[in-house]
Write a structure and sequence with these properties.
This protein is of the alpha/beta class. The protein is 47% helix and 19% strand. It binds ligand C2E and magnesium ion (3 copies). This is EAL domain-containing protein.
Length: 284
């Protein structure tokens, strides 16, 4: 019963295309229900101070536990969530959960410098939705220490309307929320962003940090760190995988790092155990 529009060639490709389209549609409708079905989990990865390797905060990283396909990484579902307009609900969920978790950690640790938590925000949340309103209500509900909630921003989409984005980001800062530029050095996050937007933290992309980049690595890292410091920003290096990465980053003047050498993304309970162990260690 298939319509013959362009001859045999089309018929040959049709079944495969239809199958793929079907999978995609199924995945979309499953993703739409993932939040209410409690299939979205948030893992937390420690961000440490290189000076003494104490935990400064955690980055929240979303996972989707698909009933059949198993645990999916955000690279597999964030883009779909953006395309079907679900990213706003998903983003609000991650923000809300993380803020609640953060206030639990803060009450349990009572450090002089409170633990922070950093949430990835898609630029679509920023441009197509009242993120300010969301952040305000999340802050009102969770009683986290001022300045201890941060958002991380990567994508180039904000450059579609830089004036609007700059205004929004300034208002976010005024709420006492930190602002990190994520994956710095990749195509998405460039120098133009630093000029236009009020970031307080720069996260160096892992491609500059991982040991594979030997040779030119120290030169590039040193320049990025100096640039960030000259602009008054803190620096977090992503993807520190070995002890020598951590040592080198510290010697280059980087203050924070995140990576497998300090801990992989873990569930909230494991993060809490890590924090309490550390506190006991510090007290003894
Ligand atoms: P990102 O924000 O740059 O997060 C860092 C990614 O690097 C995470 O991948 C983390 O698991 C991974 N990573 C950390 N340390 C190491 C290391 O030492 N070596 C290596 N090879 N990798 C390391 P993940 O969790 O798969 O997240 C991928 C990206 O998805 C994130 O990149 C972020 O852009 C996005 N994402 C994650 N959660 C959310 C979310 O809730 N909302 C939005 N909009 N995006 C999210
Ligand atoms: Mg990030
Ligand atoms: Mg990153
Ligand atoms: Mg990334």
């Amino acid at each position: 019963h298939s319509k013959r529009i362009g001859g045999d060639r089309i018929d040959v490709y049709k079944p495969a295309m239809r199958a793929r389209k079907n999978d995609r549609l199924t995945l979309e409708s499953e993703l739409r229900r993932s939040i209410e079905r409690q299939e979205i989990t948030i893992l937390y990865q420690p961000i440490v101070r290189l000076e003494d390797r104490s935990i400064a905060g955690f980055e929240a990283l979303a996972r989707w536990d698909h009933p059949k396909l198993g645990r999916m990484s955000p690279n597999e579902f964030i883009t779909i969530a953006e395309e079907i307009g679900l990213i706003v609900d998903l983003g609000t969920f991650v923000l809300d959960q993380t803020a609640r978790q953060l206030s639990v950690w803060q009450r349990a640790t009572r450090l002089r410098e409170p633990i922070f938590a950093s949430v990835n925000v898609s630029s679509r949340q920023l441009l197509r939705h009242d993120l300010i309103h969301d952040i305000r209500s999340v802050l009102a509900r969770s009683s986290v220490a001022r300045g201890s909630l941060k958002i991380e921003l990567t994508e180039s989409l904000v450059m579609e309307n830089p004036e609007h984005a700059a205004q929004m980001l300034t208002r976010i800062r005024e709420l006492g929320v930190g602002l990190s530029i994520d994956d710095f050095g990749t195509g998405h996050s460039s120098l133009a962003y630093l000029q236009r937007f009020p970031f307080d933290t720069l996260k160096i992309d892992q491609s500059f940090v991982r040991t594979t980049a030997r040779g030119t690595r120290p030169v590039i890292l040193k320049s990025i760190i100096a640039l960030a410091h000259d602009l008054g920003m803190d620096v977090v290096a992503e993807g520190a995988e070995s002890d020598s990465d951590a040592v080198e980053l510290y010697q280059l003047g980087c203050e924070y790092a995140q990576g497998y050498v300090f801990g992989e993304p873990m569930d909230a309970d494991a993060a809490m155990r890590l924090l309490t162990e550390e506190r006991l260690e510090a007290a003894s």
